[in-house]
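Action item from last week, closing it out:
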Amino acid sequence: YVQIAREGLGFQKSQTGGGMIPKAGALSTSYHRYGSVAPAEEKEKSFFDGIDISLMGIAMLAKGSDHDFLVDGLKRVNGLVETAMADFSAAHPENVAPQLAQGYKETQKLINEVRDSKLSTDEKYNVTFELETKKAQFNNALSEALGLSVAATMAPEKEPNPLWAMFIGDPDTTRVVIPGQKLGVKVHVVSQSSVAVSLKNVEVKAADGKDWEIKGPSSAQSLADDKPVDVRFDMTVPKDATFTQPYFTRPNIEQSYYDISDDTYLNHPLSPYPLAAWAQFEFQGVPVRVGEVVQSINRVNGLGVVSEPLVVGPAISVTINPRAGIVPLSGKDFVVTTAIRSNVKGPAKGTVKLDLPAGWKSSPASAEFSSVNDGDEQFATFQVAPANLAEKSYQLTAVVEYAGEQYKQGYEVTGYPGLRPDYLYRPAVLRVSGVDVKVADGLAVGYITGSGDDVPASLENLGVHVTFLAPSDIASADLSRYSSIVLGVRAYAARDELKTYNSRLLDYVKNGGVLIVQYNTPEFDHNFGPYPYEMGSNPEEVTDEASKIDILDPKNPVFLWPNQITSREFEGWVEERGSKFLKSWDTHYEALLSTADEGQEPQKGGLLYARYGKGVYIYNAYAFYRQLPEGVPGAFRLFANLISLPKNPNLK
């Protein structure tokens, strides 16, 4: 079990991707039992001591005296299961199909007996639930034993030459269908065993229960010896079709719970995909149902043919960048970029504009977009000039007009090979706050990305354009051209060259540079700073975003210029205060802030400041990488001071 778990963890695409897979053999792990409703000794031999996990254990769900029929029925079903297991042959799995079919019949017979019995309502529910599960298992086992297969793909707009199709397979199709679109679905059904199986029906069903005007033939014939049956269905996406997206949403990361848009799918991991094909077979009087979600087809160099579930989306998706930020009170204008993606099957033309606060103007007032093909994406950039800017929050919305409709939301696709794709929708809204923030003139900021964050894009709000440093820059470039260098989150875990050329970064500080190291994981716990420190194997975090902040040295240059920093800067933070606080440090470091969760010792290792030669070295565990992209005003004011340190007049 540990091997399987570790292998799964190795597929994680963030946070270093898992650990070592243990070698074969027994591996012990300790567990503590907090309570049990089943009789068991103090020290159990397995998790299931005192619990009958066999098929016969279902009888324990009926405590009344009138349940002998249940015991007898379960014995019959269990006997058929045992016989099928004993007679199974990997070369001829169809040989056990008759026992599986009889097991299905006996299970259904027992369900009927339970329904007509004198068992209590709760007993009937619990027993029937388990028997229905067993019936579904018989269905799936029969499908496997008989080699029943169903493949459902969207039909291409133009069918390829059959001879060419034998070589290249299914041609590319669209991935997103839109309301009102007509489409076809091809269903390929085959029985891969020599045993005769009847195909009773093939159908395509919509998950949202709406009328897709699905038209197609019904099939009733015998299947055997790999002879396939191909059926085509034609349909129209309803005008009010439900877009494919999770049934749970939250408006921001601060809301600690999800709003449920459709409680039909409560307790399901995600909403179903819109279309699925089902084939109804019959074997020795037993119905066997096999289905597949309708797939789109895309040919990708290197991966080959990639099939992904067909989804329903809007004709036009519009997103806005950034989604949150600030506008300095001294600023005259700022740039907003919109991305317009067309899912229209052919050319599309329309306009995009910004819905602005009263008195604000954009240049241009609106912009035209024109796409040629399905999936085309274009960008429109606006120069926004605010009016009567004050220290408060404002909202801008991107609005696309196409074919008489307005579109004000867009999606992004999550997932990667091995993880099902899903579509996350957001309103095309930019939240900005007017902020009294200043930043030094003439800054040249270098940025070394770690595992990924949006701090560089957020600094654009301050008029600071960063230069991203490549491994070759860290190894040999002239770093003195940068007034400050910022390391992204988890940089020492993600960038091996930092360990190799760390001395160059320290020389940069020694010669007058400012190095700002954002939060790192224990890979950083090797004294990469100018003086010793210790993080520890389990570094502290402060998760309460509203925890009290103590400024330990208000006269430190970090807090004096160009913005006067007070505890007010820590109001309105989101999600957390910080992560990976240092445990101890050399006296050359000065702790600037202290905070703690309830019941936690004061954490002073979140913002450390050290003079080294002519420059300044800073370790920062506070979550600026969360605050800046969310437009938290105080975080911008403090971070502006950090990157302005090279020109700070208080820095002697």
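Closing note: The chain has a mean pLDDT of 93.
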